[in-house]
Amino acid sequence: MPSKAVLYVDPDETDRRRLSRDFAADAAIELEEVATAAALRDALADGSSAYACVITEYRLDDPETDALALYDSLRADGLATAPFLLYTADGSETLASEAITAGFSGYVPKGRTDSVGRLREQLQTVGGPDANRASRARTDQRAAPGGPNRECEREQDLERYRTVVETVGDSMYVLDESDRIEMANEAMADAFETTRDELLGRPVDDFVADEDAGRIRSTLEAVRAIDGRTWKTVDLTVEVVDGTTRDAEVNVAPLVDEGTLTGSVGVIRDVSERTKRERRIRRLHDGTRRLMAATETDEIARIVTEIAADALDLDLNSVHLYEPNVLTRSAARAPSESEPPVGDGSPDATDEEQGGLVPVAMSDRVLELFDGIPSNIEPGGGIAWDAYEAGEAIVHGDVRQAPNVRNPETPIRSEGHVPLGDHGVFIVSSLETNDFDPEALTLARILAANAEAALDRAEREGELAEHGRELERQNERLEAFASTVSHDLRNPLTLATGHLELLAGRIDGDDETDRHVEELEWALTRMDELVENVLTLARSGRRLTETEPVDLAAVVERADRTVEGDIEVVWDGALPTVDGDEERLRVLFENVFRNAVEHGSTSPDSHAQEDDGRHTASSEPSVADAPEDAVKHGSTSPPSHAQEDAVEHDSASPGSQGTQADLDEETTNRGERDGEPVTVTVDPTFEGFAIADDGPGIPPGERDRVLEWGYSTDAEGTGFGLAIVAEVVEAHGWSVAVEESDAGGLRLAVSVPS
């Protein structure tokens, strides 16, 4: 090109210097640099300067102004007489098309290895002999009355479009007013597997469906109705010459001359891979919902294989889950990873029981290819086990090259093994080497992670279901035991007590005879008390299957009214409401209050000193010491309604009426402490609630035993009171800690999970 100045505007000083250095050896180009849009305007307005071309970056110093907006402003002011080239690092095919539509003469992307060479070619094209004069002539002619020959203008516009069409990498075309291809680049010819000459003159309907062509036209009309040149994107399906179809998106813009639609420009981008990816992800998402709804491991495994085949196009796949005791083929047999079990009776093929990976689900193609279900995989039995044991995904481009392959003759070539945590391994295979694309493997890992979460949940639910069944069995055993205690033990006690009362009325004995009668009365009363406590313990230990909100303040008030003895119960009115069984919680508080009354007046040492040789704490009978036959061979007949009601509401049992007044008097006297009542405080805590008394407390070394059956520091105690408390707490799924109260007494801190 002749030696004429080229004006270059770019706010980046480094880029300006670099281009000046690149053009320094080119005598035909005199590059003049400016940094701002204002400096560019001033240079173009200076009548003493003439420029062959203007090169501009897209983003300028003013964030509200870009090169296209600046060009429109300069053209309106009559300053855009030289050709404009867009030279930008922010470029794209869409931006290039917008620039050409706006009136730019060319577009070159910045930052590529051939950028400077392509820029030189563009300068030669738009800035050759008489280029500047021709540009001014076009402007003058358009301003003149009547204007130039429209066909000439059309050719000039097409020349400008041809520059950008050849520049962009995506398929690009120009249509005339009849929707026939007037111009197309090599990229479009390659995409449609034909030549540019074959494309020219053909209607767009040859390549898109009628409904898609109609949507393109309606989009162009909508764009036309908007002020300014605007691009819109249309999603459609294009048909290649050989009849195959591809998903594509087309950025279209109208070509308008004085309000008349003279054609359109379009950039076609093949989005088949993107559409495929979106479809995969959508199907994977839908499949994950199915996984999360599945409850059985076999069902989860089957869903995994279906998702892998349908959504991820991994039609050779299987799920192997670990089982601790399965029949596996010895390593000496060495079948392939996907080979069905072979019972050929060969001397080196031995079976043994051990842990292994069992095929639980596989795709239809696996069954077809290997004519059966793959064999179990023993520890150390191949590359699938290696991945499971390592706990990480391993992909083999060619399994025949793997050092631990079980069968080098397998038809499998590519294979990926993705562990499912401790549950097993997900295997995807192919008959071609290196046949897995990274995206498919990534989605396979996501699928495996979702499957692992589903298997974890199924395992937990299975454990909970088994735990629930065990609770039901335990409750049934306790119910049978309670029935035995209530019926088969109480009936003989009632009978013995009645006969003793009759006998005592007929005996006119001496002091020794009266003493024997008293001992019998004490023994029967003691047995009745133990039966009462064992029955309460058994019923309290039944695990809860149903709960309801319980107001602890109301329960404490009710328990306070039922406990005999001089006791003062203090509680905060803000006691929490908990989910539980109200009757069992009443039993809990009654036993704690009764324990405070019984132990409130004497120290642990004094109880042992009061032992009269008949029923010390150390000789007190324990439930664990009862003969098994007493339970195993007892009657299982259900107790009567009256007996059940007596147990549930802690009413006095039959046969105990003769000594109850004496026991109440003894209990009251023990709780008085020289006229001072025992004080029990119930307080809410951060974890739940606590019950504390001001009695002698429990020595630190004994606190671990105080909740055990049969343990008591009182010679008159049964050792069941606090054990019942522990059973009620455990039945609720709570926990209890034995501590020392602020007054030095006993404190029971109950933790209630939120």
From TrEMBL:
<dbReference type="GO" id="GO:0006355">
    <property type="term" value="P:regulation of DNA-templated transcription"/>
</dbReference>
<keyword id="KW-0902">Two-component regulatory system</keyword>
<keyword id="KW-0175">Coiled coil</keyword>
<dbReference type="Pfam" id="PF02518">
    <property type="entry name" value="HATPase_c"/>
</dbReference>
<protein>
    <recommendedName>
        <fullName>histidine kinase</fullName>
        <ecNumber>2.7.13.3</ecNumber>
    </recommendedName>
</protein>
<feature type="domain" description="PAC">
    <location>
        <begin position="232"/>
        <end position="283"/>
    </location>
</feature>
<feature type="coiled-coil region">
    <location>
        <begin position="441"/>
        <end position="484"/>
    </location>
</feature>
<dbReference type="InterPro" id="IPR050736">
    <property type="entry name" value="Sensor_HK_Regulatory"/>
</dbReference>
<dbReference type="Pfam" id="PF13185">
    <property type="entry name" value="GAF_2"/>
</dbReference>
<dbReference type="Pfam" id="PF00989">
    <property type="entry name" value="PAS"/>
</dbReference>
<feature type="region of interest" description="Disordered">
    <location>
        <begin position="598"/>
        <end position="680"/>
    </location>
</feature>
<dbReference type="GO" id="GO:0000155">
    <property type="term" value="F:phosphorelay sensor kinase activity"/>
</dbReference>
<feature type="domain" description="PAS">
    <location>
        <begin position="157"/>
        <end position="227"/>
    </location>
</feature>
<dbReference type="InterPro" id="IPR013767">
    <property type="entry name" value="PAS_fold"/>
</dbReference>
<dbReference type="InterPro" id="IPR036890">
    <property type="entry name" value="HATPase_C_sf"/>
</dbReference>
<dbReference type="InterPro" id="IPR004358">
    <property type="entry name" value="Sig_transdc_His_kin-like_C"/>
</dbReference>
<dbReference type="InterPro" id="IPR003018">
    <property type="entry name" value="GAF"/>
</dbReference>
<keyword id="KW-0418">Kinase</keyword>
<feature type="compositionally biased region" description="Basic and acidic residues">
    <location>
        <begin position="607"/>
        <end position="617"/>
    </location>
</feature>
<feature type="domain" description="Histidine kinase">
    <location>
        <begin position="484"/>
        <end position="754"/>
    </location>
</feature>
<dbReference type="InterPro" id="IPR036097">
    <property type="entry name" value="HisK_dim/P_sf"/>
</dbReference>
<dbReference type="InterPro" id="IPR001789">
    <property type="entry name" value="Sig_transdc_resp-reg_receiver"/>
</dbReference>
<dbReference type="InterPro" id="IPR003661">
    <property type="entry name" value="HisK_dim/P_dom"/>
</dbReference>
<keyword id="KW-0597">Phosphoprotein</keyword>
<feature type="domain" description="Response regulatory">
    <location>
        <begin position="5"/>
        <end position="125"/>
    </location>
</feature>
<feature type="region of interest" description="Disordered">
    <location>
        <begin position="329"/>
        <end position="354"/>
    </location>
</feature>
<feature type="compositionally biased region" description="Basic and acidic residues">
    <location>
        <begin position="642"/>
        <end position="651"/>
    </location>
</feature>
<dbReference type="InterPro" id="IPR001610">
    <property type="entry name" value="PAC"/>
</dbReference>
<dbReference type="InterPro" id="IPR011006">
    <property type="entry name" value="CheY-like_superfamily"/>
</dbReference>
<dbReference type="InterPro" id="IPR035965">
    <property type="entry name" value="PAS-like_dom_sf"/>
</dbReference>
<keyword id="KW-0808">Transferase</keyword>
<dbReference type="Pfam" id="PF00512">
    <property type="entry name" value="HisKA"/>
</dbReference>
<dbReference type="InterPro" id="IPR000700">
    <property type="entry name" value="PAS-assoc_C"/>
</dbReference>
<feature type="compositionally biased region" description="Basic and acidic residues">
    <location>
        <begin position="667"/>
        <end position="676"/>
    </location>
</feature>
<dbReference type="InterPro" id="IPR005467">
    <property type="entry name" value="His_kinase_dom"/>
</dbReference>
<feature type="region of interest" description="Disordered">
    <location>
        <begin position="124"/>
        <end position="153"/>
    </location>
</feature>
<dbReference type="InterPro" id="IPR029016">
    <property type="entry name" value="GAF-like_dom_sf"/>
</dbReference>
<dbReference type="InterPro" id="IPR000014">
    <property type="entry name" value="PAS"/>
</dbReference>
<dbReference type="InterPro" id="IPR003594">
    <property type="entry name" value="HATPase_dom"/>
</dbReference>
